[in-house]
C-alpha cells in the first residue's frame, strides 16, 4: 500500500508542472512597446522619427517598417520632375510612361502614387502619436516640450502641404491613435487642409528658435516655418483660390513671412552660386534654411546591407551615359549613369542668358576627362558625310581628312577631355527631340558643319543637335563624389529643401502678383546678381566660343539685372492664358532651382501645368489632360475604407 | 526510508531526477509482481520447423517467439529453426521484416512449416494516431498511412517528397527546384490567410516547429497522416492543417541486420525555355523601333541597325555591331544565318549530379534493441552556382530495463551545406544573344554587349558566394512503465536544437558590386526547442467492452536568437566573410530574440463494443504564451464513431465484403497563427542624423491587439473503409466539411490610420471535399503480380466572410466565395488587330494595333480598376495519382503518375518589349506588310504577345497576359528493379541485393508555357529530370 502511495504521489508530482501561468508568461526582449514614448529618450526618438520619414523623398528602401509602403527608390523625382516643362525623360527607369508621358499607367494602382501617400501619412501619424504622448513624458521640461511640439507641428504641416498639392482634398488627421482600427475616413476640403497647415506653421513660428547649435542642425526653426508659411500663402492664392481657400491678404502674408526670413539676419546667399551645392559646404552654408540631413556613416545614412538602400540617391538620376564612351570608365566622381531625366534640350538652349548667367554652367556638367585611355578613339584617315535619314556614310563625300601624322593615333590621352557635351546648336535638323537619327534635313550646310566639327574634335563632341535620351548635359547639383565606392548608392549629400534664394523668389512673386513690381524686381535682382559672373571670376570657355559672350573676368552682374518692363513682357504665345509675370517667375525659378525637385508643384500651384507641358514636353503634350493637375488617390487607400464609399467621394476626377 | 524523507527529497529534485528516482522506486516496488514464472521452473520440449515465403524460398533471419514470453530464436540460412519451449507454450509468433507476422498454435505438433506472406496494406496494421497507436481496423478518424515498404519504392530527397501521391487529400508540391529545397505539403486545401497551411510534423513524438528535410527517407518506418479533426484535435491549437506523424525505424530483436541503400543520378533540365537567338533578337529590335517610326519599313541596313544597339559598340571588334556588320554583304543584303548566337543558358547551367548513401545496422536482444544509421546526400545543381550536401547520423534504442520499465530514445545529428549562389538568370534572359561572354584571351567581359544595365552573369559563379549551413540535433527520449490496474505511464522528452549560419560574399566583379569593392554578410541564428510530455494510458477489456483512456500533460518551448552583421568595402577579397572586422564600413547590424511556450492537457477515451461499435472522444486544453493574459487557454474537443459493419451477424455470410466500416467524426482544431509578441504592439527603429549627430528614431510599427485568439476550424468527416473480394480490392472514401473561423489576417488598413495593417481575428473560410483511395491487387500469381493504387481528391476552398462581412477585400485579392489565392486582374483578350481601329478609337488615343487588349467589363470604354476580374486560382479542381506495382520473378517495376487539374499559375514570361534586352521566344505581334506610304496593312495576327515598342518598357496591362492553365499529368517516377535470387545470395550470406534504376520527372503533359507547372513562375530554378541507378543491400 505504501508503495502504491509513493507511486501515486510521484505521478502526481510529475504531472504538476510549476504554475502554468508563470510558464506561459511572455518574455519580451527584442521589442519595445508604446510606453517607451513616455520617457524622454523615447520621446526624442519619436520626434526624430518624424524627421527621418523625410528621407523617403531622396530614395531609400528601408524607410519605415513594412515593405508594402516602404521602399521608394525612384518615386519623388517622378512626382516633381517628370511630366513638367523643363525636364524630359532619359533612357532607363520604369516610371516614365506614367509620370512623364501621363499614359494609362498613371492610375490609382500606380506604386509611386501609393508610396508617396503612405510615406507622408506615416510622417503625419508619427507626429500625431508623438504629440499624443508628449503630456505623459515626466522628465522633459515644459520648455523642451513646447519646442518639440512646435517641431512636430512644422513637420506635420510640411507633410500635408506636399500631399495637398498632389492629391487635393485629403483626410485630415490631427489626433494620435495607436489602439483603434479606423477605416471610415472622409476627405476634408482643400481649404481646410490649408487652414490646418497654416495653423500648425503659425504655432511653430511662434515658439521655434532662430537657430540651432550645429548638433541640432536640421531641426525646424522659426525661419523654416516662416519660409514654408510664405510658400503656403503664395500657393493658396496662386490659382484656384476658391478651392484652396485663398484670401485677399495671402499675398501680403507671403511677402511678410518671406521678408521675415530675408531680414532675420540669420541667413545670407552664398556669394558664388556654385557653393550652394558644394558638398563640403552643406552642413555650414548660411543660405540653407532647412535640409533633410545625411551622413557618411553608413549605418546612420540607412545604407542597408549592400550600400544601395538608403542615403540620398539623387546623385544617380541625372547622370549622362558617359561610362561606355571611348576613353571613359565609371568612376566615383562622375557617378552612376542612371539617366532617368535630362533637361529639355530646347530649354537648355534658351532658358539662361548664357553670356551673363553663370548658373547654366554651374548647374550642368559638360566635360568628362579621360580616365580609361586604353579605349580612346583613334583618328580615322577620312571622315565621310552621313545621310541623316539612313545614318549611312556616304564614302564618296569626304568631309574631313585627318593630318597624316595623327591617323591611327588616339584622339586623346588620360587627363584630356574625352567627352564634351556642348551648348552649341547647329540647327540643321527638323527635330532634336527624339532619340533617333533625324529624318528631315532642314539645312544641309549647318548639318554638314556639325559633322565636320564632330569629325575634327579630338574628343567625343556632342552638340545640342545630338542630345538624346542617353546624351545630355549632366545635372551636377546632386553629384556625390564622397561616396566610398563607384556603385555606392546611399549618398551623403543633404537634401536641400529650403534655401534663401527661394525665399527671395517667393517674396518677389508675392510682390509682383500684388502689382508691386518695384519690390518684385528688387528681390529678383538680388538673385540674378548673385547668378552673374563675379568680378575676377573666370568664365567658362563656351561663353566666348559658343555663346557669343566675352572671355574676360569682369562681372556680368549689371547685365543680369531686370527691369519692371522685362518681367512683365510676354514671352509665350498670347491667347493661351499665360500671365507674363508668372511666366517670368516660373522661368527664373527654373534657372535658379533647376533639378531641386519642385517643378511639378510650381506648375500645379500656378495653374500652368497643362498648358506648359503641352507647350514644352514632347512626350507628354498629346496625353496630358486637365485632370492631371491632381494625382489619383491610391487604391490601397480607397479599397480599404469601410463602409465602402462612393467612388466620386474618394477619387479625383478622371481616375475612375 | 520514511515517506516523509523521500517526499522531501523528491520536492527538492528537479523534474528529471525526480523521474529517475521515481523509477528507481518502481524497480524496487513493483519488480516482483506475481504471474511472471521463469522457464526453468517448467517442463520443456523441442520444436522445429522451416519458414518460407509464398514462392517457397527460405526466409533466413525470421524471428520465432513463444507468445507471451521472451523465448525465441532466429531462423538460419535455410529458414530453419529449432527451439526449446515450455510445455505450457501455446502459440508461436513468426515474423520477418516486410512480411505479415503469423501466430501458430503449437498444440501437440513439434514440427512446423510456416509460410509468411508479403505485408500489404491491411486492416491489421497499426497506425500512429498521436500519443499512441491503434489497429487500423479500430480507427475512427481519417488517417492515411505510408509504410517504409511503400517509401522504399522510389527515392526521395525528403519525407515530404516521399509522401507525394501516397495519401488522398495530401498535395505535395515541389515549388522550388533548387538543390536542398523541400516540397510544400498541403492537406485538404488551405484555410488560413496569414498562418502557415503546412501540417504539423511530429517526429518520434516531438512536434517540430521547423521543417524536416534533414530526415533521411530510409530512417523512416512509417508516416501517418491525420487528416480529419477527430484525429488531429488531440494536437489542439496546432491541428488545423492536419498532422504528419513520422516514426523512425527501431531496432529489432535478432541478429544484426545491415542495410545499405544508395543511388547515383544525373540531372538534366526537364524543359529549357527558348529565348530569341541572334537573328531573331535583331529582328525583334527592329520591330520595336519600327513601332515608333524609327526604323525604315524597307530592307534592313547596317547603318540603321547600329543605332538601336547599345552605345559604345563601335569599339568592340568582336562585339554585336561587328557581328551584325558581317551579316551584311557589300551590296547591302542581309544574311542572318551568319550570326552566331551565344548560349547564355549553357554558360550557367551544367549537368546536375545527385548521390545518396544510407547505411544502417539494426538488431538487438529481446531486451535491448538498437538501430544505428548514417546517411550522406550530395547534389550538384543544374545551376553552376548551386549545390547542397547533407550528412546525418542516428542512434535509436529501446531497452527493457526491467519487466515493467522500458527506456528508449531516438537521436539524430545532421548537417547541411547549401550553396545558394547569387541570381544569374536576370542576365541570362536579358543579355543579347550576340554579346560575347569572354574576350579572345578567355577573360570574362564585365558588360557583355556593352549594355550598361547588364553585368555578366557568368562572373557570379566565381565572384560571389552565398553559403547556408545548418547543424541540427533532434532527440526524443522516453521512459515507459507498466503500472498496476493496466495502467501504463510514459514520459517523453524531445529536443530540437539547431545553429544556422547564413554567410554571403559579393566580390568586386560580382553583379552585386559591378566593379566596386567587395562586401560581406555574416549572420546566423540558434533555435532551441524542447518538449516534455507525460502520459497515462489505461486499457481494459471486460467481456465485449473494450475501454481505453489516455491522459496527457505537456509543455513545449521554443527559443530563437539571431544576429547579423553586414559590411562594405572589404579590404581584401580572399577573406570572404571570415574577417568582417577588417572592413571600414558597417552597413547593417541586427539581433533578435523570440521565445514562446505552450502548455497542454489532453484526455482521450476509446471504447468499443464487440469490436463492432467504436467510439473515440478527446479534449485538449492548450495554453499559449503568445496570447494575451486572460485569453491564453482554449479547449479543443472532438468525437468520432465507427461501425464495423462486416462484424455484424447479417454480414457474416456475405462473400463480397471482407471489410466494411463506416466512420463519422467531428472536432475543433486551431492554428497557431499568431507570432509571439503580437498582442502587445511594438515600435520600430530607424536612424537619423542632425547636423552630424547620430540619432535613433523610434516610430509606431504594430498596433497592440490584446484580443487575439487562435483560428479555429470545426470539421465534420464521414468515411467508409471497405475491402472486397477477399481484400483484393480495398479502399477508403472520405467526405469532409471544414469551417474555419476567427481567421487571423493582416487586416489591411489605410495608412492614414497610422498603420498599414493589423493582425486581426476576422473572417471565415470553408473547405469541403472528397477523397478516394483504392488499392487493387489485380493479379496475384506466384511469379507475377500487379497491383494498383489509385488516389483521387477534390477540395473546394472558399472565403465565407471577411472583416467587412460579406464584402470582398480587393486590396488583398480576397473574394467571398473564392479560394484564398486567386488572380485578380484585367482579362486579356489578346492583341488589338489591324482593322479594329474604330473600336480602339472609342477608348480615345490609348490603343493602337499590336497593343494588349483587355476586357472592358462594364462597357464604359474606359479601362479602370473596376474592369479587373477574377482570372483563376492556383487551387486545382482535383488531384489524382496512380501507382502501379508489377513483379515478375525477380524483377519489379513501379511507376507513379501524378495529375492536377484546373489550377492556374502566373508566369511573367520575362518579356522585354522596348527593343533592348533579349526575351523569351514568343510569337509577338508584328506588321508583315506596309503600303507605299509606310502604313501597316497586314500583320501576323498574333494574340500571344504585344508588338515591341522602343518607347515603352512595360506595355499597359502586361500582367493580364501572364495567367496560364497549369493542369498537368506527370510521370513522376518509374523504377525498374531486380532482386538477385536468394539461392545466390545465400552463398554469400546476403539477405537481399536489389539493383534498380529510376527516372524521376520522366515527362509532364501540360499546356503551361513555363519551365514547370509546379515551379515555373520564374526562370530561376529549372526543374530537373533525374536518372538514377541504385542498390538496396541487406546483410
Describe what this molecule looks like in 3D.
The complex is a heterodimer of chains A (656) and B (1035). In chain A, helix 9 packs parallel to helix 15 (500-514) and helix 15 (500-514) runs antiparallel to helix 16. In chain A, strand 8, helix 14 and strand 9 form a beta-alpha-beta unit. Chain A is 38% helix and 7% strand. The radius of gyration of chain A is 29 Å and the shape is globular. Chain A is built from 24 helices and eleven strands. The termini of chain A are far apart. In chain A, the strands form five sheets. A three-stranded mixed β-sheet of chain A has the order 5-8-9. Chain A has a two-stranded antiparallel ribbon with strand order 1-3. A two-stranded antiparallel sheet of chain A has the order 2-11. With 656 residues, chain A is mainly α. With 1035 residues, chain B is mainly β. Chain B is built from 13 helices and 50 strands. In chain B, the strands form twelve sheets. Chain B has a 22-stranded antiparallel beta barrel. In chain B, a hairpin with an 8-residue loop joins strand 34 (744-748) and strand 35 (757-761). The chains are: A mainly alpha (656), B mainly beta (1035). At the A-B interface, helix 1, helix 2, helix 3, helix 6 and helix 23 of A face helix 1, helix 2, helix 7, strand 23 and strand 24 of B.
**Mean pLDDT over all positions of chain B:** 86
Tell me the total number of β-strands of chain B: 50
Shape of chain A: globular
- Low-confidence runs of at least 5 consecutive residues of chain A: 63-71
The radius of gyration of chain B is 33 Å
Low-pLDDT stretches of chain B are: 1-40
Content-based structural category of chain B? mainly beta
Q: Structural class of the secondary structure composition of chain A?
A: mainly alpha
The main pleated sheet of chain B reads as: 22 strands, antiparallel, barrel
Q: Number of helical runs of chain A?
A: 24
